């Protein structure tokens, strides 16, 4: 029995989590693979109900689970609250509380979505497969911040052990892929980036079979569009990883296609699509649930060792796309437009056929 904490959150969060649960239920086999779901309050809805974005009980349930699946948090309703009681604090509190320092964000182009990518066909070539490894519980997100009269500040701080552990994740993962790591920083300006670069270079000595190069973040933002094939694994800080992964998601068609897995020192993982609560389409049955469904596949693979079932979900998604079903964000001429709920049903239908 695998215990899964579900954090639907705000905006499109509850709708996409509903689709992910359908998929997990389709994977269940009585006596063999069973899931126990516990719904957890976090984000704006938690502020409304309890006055706090992440009630202690919510974090405790997540800590006692084998995996956590989050939809999204935040929205205009809570945008003017003070920083420490904004919905987004729930996300930071969960990531930090669970100790998940390594955020894996794979940008893989399903061949069926070549036309949804804004890149020219000749740039896409055989396809795109870039993995962003984002440091998740350090850097400017967790540095000192504050206000001093008419000034405000946020500080970025990284220690050698923090960089070493994310570097090891990047190099270990690269070994299972195309053996290339690009470390992205702003070492021409930031002292924290200079420490980052030195530390990555040092860790690389233990991985002579993996090629390492360093790149400034502004150049990387451009190179991703000019020639994404030069990248295999990108390892970078919390803030740069946030920005570059949204950019990478568009290369493969849509922000609604990018899943993520956040891992620490244990098998317990934190899984979420990389997008937010999409207030502009919330409650309209328009959101693409595939990023969340693909995050479920990552959960099965990384936290539960259910590799075959993870592959099945990815194959079912590919088949749904192959048969021309599209949510609005990836819609093209001659394809069949479906809503969030129908897309979830289709993935389940194809899963049942495999
Ligand atoms: P967003 O990711 O919510 O939306 C950006 C754009 O992408 C919007 O046009 C939206 O409609 C679209 N989009 C996002 N997900 C989609 C999906 N699954 N299917 C189709 N279209 C999708 O980013 P934003 O608008 O900058 O932020 C909105 C709120 O979400 C903010 O409160 C922000 O803090 C929060 N946020 C939360 C998370 C999270 O919970 N992990 C991540 C990012 C942003
Ligand atoms: C993400 C989001 C979050 C982040 C916000 C909502 C705190 O943008 O998961 O990418 O910046 O990490
Ligand atoms: Mn983001």
Write out key terms for the chains shown.
oxidoreductase, 2 domains, ten-stranded mixed sheet, EC 1.1.1.85, 3-isopropylmalate dehydrogenase activity, binds nicotinamide-adenine-dinucleotide, 12 helices, binds manganese (II) ion, alpha/beta, IsoPropMal-DH-like_dom, Isopropylmalate Dehydrogenase, NAD binding, binds 3-isopropylmalic acid, two-stranded antiparallel sheet
Strand coverage percent: 15-25%
Rg from Cα: 20 Å
Q: What is the CATH topology descriptor of the largest domain?
A: Isopropylmalate Dehydrogenase
CATH class of the largest domain: Alpha Beta
CATH architecture of the largest domain: 3-Layer(aba) Sandwich
Strand numbers in spatial order across the main sheet: 2-1-3-12-11-4-5-10-8-9
**Major beta sheet, specifics?**
10 strands, mixed
How does the overall form come out from the CA principal axes? globular
What is the helix tally? 12
Mean pLDDT: 98
The class by helix and strand makeup works out as alpha/beta
Say which CATH homologous superfamily of the largest domain is assigned.
Isopropylmalate Dehydrogenase
Low-confidence stretches: none
Describe the structure.
The protein has about 350 residues and is of the alpha/beta class. The chain folds into 2 domains: about 1-115 and about 260-354, Isopropylmalate Dehydrogenase (3-Layer(aba) Sandwich); about 120-250, Isopropylmalate Dehydrogenase, CATH 3.40.718. It contains 12 helices and 14 strands. It has helices spanning about 15-25, 45-50, 55-65, 90-100, 120-125, 160-175, 190-205, 215-225, 240-250, 290-300, 305-320, 340-354, and strands at about 1-10, 35-40, 65-70, 100-110, 130-135, 145-150, 150-155, 180-185, 210-215, 235, 260-265, 270, 325, 335. The strands form 3 sheets. The protein has a 10-stranded mixed sheet with strand order 2-1-3-12-11-4-5-10-8-9, with helices on both faces. A two-stranded antiparallel ribbon has the order 6-7. Strand 1, helix 1 (about 15-25) and strand 2 (about 35-40) form a beta-alpha-beta unit. Helix 1 (about 15-25) packs across helix 10, helix 6 crosses helix 7 and helix 8 (about 215-225) runs parallel beside helix 9 (about 240-250). The model has no long low-confidence stretch (mean pLDDT about 100). The structure holds nicotinamide-adenine-dinucleotide, 3-isopropylmalic acid (IPM) and manganese (II) ion. Manganese (II) ion binds near residues 242 and 246. GO terms for molecular function: 3-isopropylmalate dehydrogenase activity; magnesium ion binding; NAD binding. Homodimer. This is 3-isopropylmalate dehydrogenase. Catalyzes the oxidation of 3-carboxy-2-hydroxy-4-methylpentanoate (3-isopropylmalate) to 3-carboxy-4-methyl-2-oxopentanoate. The product decarboxylates to 4-methyl-2 oxopentanoate. Pathway: Amino-acid biosynthesis; L-leucine biosynthesis; L-leucine from 3-methyl-2-oxobutanoate: step 3/4.
